[in-house]
Amino acid sequence: MAKHQFIRFQLGITSDQFLRVYQGSAKNISTRADDGRLIKFPAQNIKQFLTREGIYGYFEMELTIEHKFVAIKKLNNLSTQA
User: Nearest-5° angle of CA 15, CA 17, CA 22?
Assistant: First the structure.
């Protein structure tokens, strides 16, 4: 059985920034993972965590060994004041 990989990262996206997804001008999220890799993934993968303030937190994404998305979970919150 192939092992999955896990990538951890922080996000701080305002609701106005995420609005671009709904307007069609943005489809992907780009951020730097804890291990230094630049990662890019469909904004739809993180949409479930959208609040009135935006998307703030520390996340872990699970991928197959072939880099196919499996799941994402929020590990903790980050302050919107940071």
Answer: 85
